[in-house]
Write a structure and sequence with these properties.
extended; 14 helices; 425 residues; 2 domains; alpha+beta; three-stranded antiparallel sheet
Length: 425
């Protein structure tokens, strides 16, 4: 496609031949997105994480929020499974893997069992205590030896067949790793990253630099917010007569005396004037840059920067609710898939087999306050009473619901007979 064809294909539907709007004479007609490298140096990302607190919060906060309330195990072996989670530090390793995935675009958790690492992992052969420990690697610590490009039916299609840890010789089959992938990429770009995702830091690195450089620029301006200017009669003539050194010494002495005794001594032919730099328009620009960055990384400014909520009667609760909704959505992409694979090994290591009743649910991120919770329980109680009076449900159904929510506990002898309905029966 020629340049002219590209311009024509990018033209607006609205055209104005006089102003050039929507034609190839318009400036907007030449705007276009270009591909950037997704293989940024790990050194730059590590340096950004080490030296800049904003980058740390971008990488640390979402994984910590995803796992803060963790999950509730649903199984007859829940206690054994939770004990195994604690033993292998499952939650901690998931947080670390997601952190490096957000920084570098990918990370993997190696499951060390008693099986040969070069051969595929057979989860059905995992016995109780078979999981020794978990090790986390970021994507740059793992080198691919072969890529599966021939078998589209395999789970690792277009992904490495074996990995080798940087500096080591041991080949490790891909099935021994639980992969944590960074930001989503088109398949054509994932082919360049060996199946890893994009760095959350890389895709907003320009915006991060804008915020940091703006802050540094403001700090520099503050150093020169007040400038003393001195008007001296005959200065041009003195400079023309090679008296630069004498003039320089004169005002060095002036500056020293002003600093020591906080007093300025001037000749009758000298006038002191202080110029003050106005910074009134700087704060709104900085605020807009911070808001732009918070939108880029998907973290509210109140949480990313610790800013006070803006707007009349604003509490920031709406921003946090939207953020928690985003966390719940991203948790399914970033955490649930690798965690499910880890459970195949971890649960068997805890119990000796995979229980048929094993399941889990995520705990609520935001806890309802006492008033909201009481109001919800009152509404539910009123609903149940109406259904009981209309003979829609039975008393034991309400009891079972209360017991499943762990509000009240009933023994088998305490459950009301299913034939008993509301108070009029």
């Amino acid at each position: 496609m020629t340049i002219k064809q590209r311009i024509m294909s990018a033209a607006d539907g609205l055209q104005n031949l006089v102003s050039g709007l929507g034609t190839n004479r318009g400036k907007r007609a030449h705007n276009q997105f270009l591909l950037e490298s997704v293989g940024n140096s790990w050194m730059e990302m590590d340096a950004a994480y080490q030296t800049n607190w904003i980058v740390r919060r971008i990488c640390d906060v979402p994984p910590e929020d995803m796992t803060r309330e963790w999950r509730a195990i649903k199984s007859d072996f829940a206690e054994e499974i939770e004990a195994e989670e604690s033993r292998v530090s499952l939650k901690h390793n998931c947080v670390e893997a997601m952190t490096w995935a957000r920084l570098h675009g990918g990370a993997a958790v190696l499951m060390l069992t008693n099986q040969d690492l070069e051969k595929p992992l057979d989860v059905t052969k995992i016995k109780k205590g078979g999981l020794e420990r978990l090790l986390v690697f970021d994507r740059w610590e793992l080198g691919a030896t072969t890529i599966n490009t021939t078998n589209p039916l395999s789970e690792n299609y277009l992904l490495p067949e074996h990995y080798r840890v940087q500096g080591g010789n041991q080949q490790i089959h891909w099935s021994h790793f639980a992969r944590f992938v960074g930001a989503r990429l088109p398949r054509r770009l994932m082919a360049l990253t060996q199946g890893w995702g994009d760095s959350e830091v890389r895709k907003c690195l320009t915006d991060i630099k804008d915020v940091v450089s703006s802050k540094d620029g403001i700090a520099e301006l503050m150093q020169e917010a007040n400038i003393d200017t001195i008007t001296r009669e005959g200065l041009s003539d003195e400079l023309a007569s090679d008296q630069e050194e004498a003039i320089k010494k004169r005002y060095e002495l002036f500056s020293q005396m002003k600093s020591i005794v906080n007093m300025a001594l001037l000749d009758s032919g000298e006038t002191l004037d202080r110029q003050t730099l106005s910074l009134s328009g700087v704060a709104p620009v900085m605020d807009n840059l911070m808001l732009w960055l918070s939108g880029c990384v998907g973290i509210p400014a109140t949480k990313l920067f610790g800013m006070a909520p803006a707007g009349l009667n604003s509490t920031g609760e709406g921003d946090l609710n939207n953020y928690y909704d985003s966390i719940i959505s991203n948790r399914g992409y970033a955490l649930e898939r690798p965690l499910t694979y880890l459970d195949q090994v971890m649960v068997r290591s805890a119990v000796g087999q995979m229980p048929d009743d094993f399941d889990f649910s995520w705990n609520t991120l935001k806890k309802a306050n006492v008033i909201e919770q009481s109001q919800a329980e009152l509404i539910n109680a009123q609903r149940d009473r109406i259904y009981l009076e209309d003979h829609v449900i039975e008393i034991n159904q309400v009891q079972q619901t209360l017991q499943s929510k762990e509000i009240y506990q009933f023994g088998e002898d305490d459950l009301t007979d299913g034939d008993n309905f509301g108070s009029d029966e």
